[in-house]
Write a structure and sequence with these properties.
This protein is mostly helical. It has three helices and no strands.
């Protein structure tokens, strides 16, 4: 098999894909331009979302409350089923 011919075929295939992508990109740009100025601005890196200390504390309290409820229900179920938690290894 001639390697140069295979490379040429691959090159033509990639060029065809590139042309197709350029055409799609032009369509997307035209649609963005049609939508107005807001769609025409450059895409920038998204800003990092910063959460205040108060918000973090509030989320932490809510998580603790959920886990406390879960633990309380688990204890209740164990009591109903007379299930003893795992005994310590030293007994």
């Amino acid at each position: 098999m001639d390697i140069r011919a295979a490379i040429k075929r691959e090159e033509k295939k990639l060029e065809k894909q590139l042309t197709k992508l350029h055409h799609q990109l032009a369509g997307v740009r035209a649609a963005a331009q049609a939508l107005g100025k807001s769609a025409g601005r450059d895409i920038t890196k998204a800003k990092k979302r910063v959460m205040s200390a108060a918000a973090r504390a509030k989320i932490g309290r809510a998580a603790k409350k959920r886990w406390a409820k879960f633990g309380k229900e688990a204890k209740r179920w164990r009591a109903q089923l007379n299930v003893v938690p795992n005994p310590p290894d030293h007994l």
